[in-house]
Amino acid sequence: MLEPKVMEFLSRHFFSLKSKKIIVGVSGGPDSLALLHFLWGQKDKRNLSIVAAHVDHMFRGQESLDDALFVKDYCKQHDIPFEMSRINIPLIMERTGNSSQVAAREERYKFFETIMEKYDYPYLALAHHGDDQIETMLMRMTRGSTGKARAGIPFTRPFHRGMIFRPFLTLTKEEIEQYCRENQLTPRIDPSNKKSIYSRNRFRKEVLPFLKMENPNVHEHFQRFSEDLQSDEAFLQELTVQNMNKVMTIREKSKISMDIKPFLDMPLPLQRRGIQLILNYLYKEKPASLSAVHIEQIFSIIYHSGPSGKLNFPNGLMVIRSYQTMSFQFEDSSVQNYYYVVHDDSKIDLPDGGSIRVKLVHKEPSEYDSNSAIFNAARIKWPIVIRTRKNGDRMSLKGMSGTRKLKDIFIDYKVPLQERDTWPVITDGDHSIIWLPGLKKSAMEGTDSSAKQYLLLTYKT
Questions:
Q1: Per-residue pLDDT, 15
Q2: What is the mean pLDDT of residues 241-259?
Q3: pLDDT band for position 244 (cuts 50, 70, 90)
Q4: Which of 136, 280, 298, 301 could form a cystine bridge with 305, CB 3.0-4.6 A?
């Protein structure tokens, strides 16, 4: 019964076993042992080449070593090449801080890559089944996963230089155990599979029996649902990429900026996927704490905040709204406050690539613009200071009485939040702000008929 069901499932996915070279992940439990036995039974009929790969995670001492020896003995009896590795996962957990499941999975897949490389076999077969699919999808939806993650376990996915495939997704756990009994297989049982400390085991023991009582074929419906979600998601992702390429204004390794107006013209399902696309790009490894809640926070500052807003995400990612620009960037410790003291003619190169030229001239320049400022040199106290802004900075403005906060000037000119902290501020020796380049000139700026010498400041971006 198992073989025709699996072969029909493979055929439906246009996947042929003929002449495949396959590494089989085998723990020694019922699922993986049944998969190894099934593929071994197809070996001659389909001209298969198979290698069994086993990892001892060293959680259970002699007991887990016995699992490895059991798989090794099975492979010897059936003339199947066998590879194994003993990896001290508890030690790796201590070193990395990862959970047992995360650490074990990472090391296990590294080992599979090594064996695929050694034999030059492009396929890795894993024994996930229909019950696993239900548990995974329910767990991810409960956790708040988004997009493709909600589709659960894919039948195939790229891996290393080849592909992972899972031929047992069409089967239930009970069908696999029945197959083991019919073929006199005596798999090893990992006692951790019964511990309720693992959320998967709680779903397995409490939720899954209820669903199967409602419908014994519920796994088939979940599998179809998974496949529908995956195909729909692939189509929507393609549309999202096409649209996001039109709205992104900056795309760098650690920073992406987008124009909000055309972004809001996109359909909402593409907007959500567009944000997810950005997060996936910037986070090489997505933090476990990142969830759908964070995407809702982003939409909150897009739709409901004022012209500016800022969110602090896991691992130092900042999401900044500044007027009609939304930026996603990691905190850059290389960008620091600066403070340059100038005593004579000089050119100061700024960290952002711009520059300020300080020059004494003996006659009034014939022309100058918003990127230049001129002062009666006799009225300026030296040294000139070029620095970044400070809290409470104010300046007297040309043609106006009193002073104005720099913060308000930045707002008036809609200077993006992320640029304000690096914008040059120029003061004299009395700490009076005499110029905010490109934006505002102070009351001290301008020509003076009594001047014998002028201070000329020029800003280049």
A1: 96
A2: 92
A3: very high
A4: 301
pLDDT of 195: 56
28 annotated ligand-binding residue: yes
Q: Which domain holds residue 373?
A: 339-460
61 and 183 together in one domain: yes
Is 130 known to sit in a ligand binding site? Answer: no
What Cα–Cα distance (Å) separates residue 71 from each residue in 83, 190, 385?
10, 14, 74
Q: In this structure, are 353 and 436 located in the same domain?
A: yes
Q: Is 29 annotated as a binding residue?
A: yes
Residue 316, marked binder: no
Residue 408 lies in a domain: yes
**380 and 318 both lie in a single domain:** no
Task: Check whether 122 has a pLDDT greater than 90.
Answer: yes
List the CATH number of the domain containing 450.
Answer: 3.50.40.10
Is residue 196 scored above 60 in pLDDT? Answer: no
User: At residue 210, what is the residue type?
Assistant: F
CATH of the domain at 130: 3.40.50.620
Domain membership flag for residue 233: no
The response to whether 314 counts as a known ligand-binding position is no
> Long-range CB contacts (< 8 A, 24+ apart) of 13-17?
13/155, 13/156, 15/155, 15/156, 15/165, 15/167, 17/42, 17/46, 17/48
Q: Which CATH number characterizes residue 295's domain?
A: 3.30.465.60
- Same-domain status, 62 and 152: yes
Whole-number pLDDT of residue 336: 66
**pLDDT at residue 332, as a whole number:** 61
Residue 242 lies in a domain: no
Amino acid at 148: K
pLDDT digits (tens, 9 = 90+) for 310-356: 888 988 899 989 888 999 998 764 556 789 999 889 899 888 788 99
Read off the pTM: 0.67
Q: What domain count does the chain have? A: 3
Asked if 247 and 258 count as a contact pair (C-beta separation under 8 A), the reply is yes
Among 94, 110, 111, 93, residue whose Cα is nearest residue 102 = 93
The total number of residues written for the chain in this structure? 461
Same domain, 178 and 30: yes
What is the rounded CA–CA span in Å between residue 43 and residue 332? 55
Residue 31 has pLDDT above 60, yes or no: yes
Q: CB burial class (10 A; 0-12, 13-18, 19+) of residue 340?
A: middle
Is 167 among the domain residues? Answer: yes
Q: Is 31 annotated as a binding residue?
A: yes
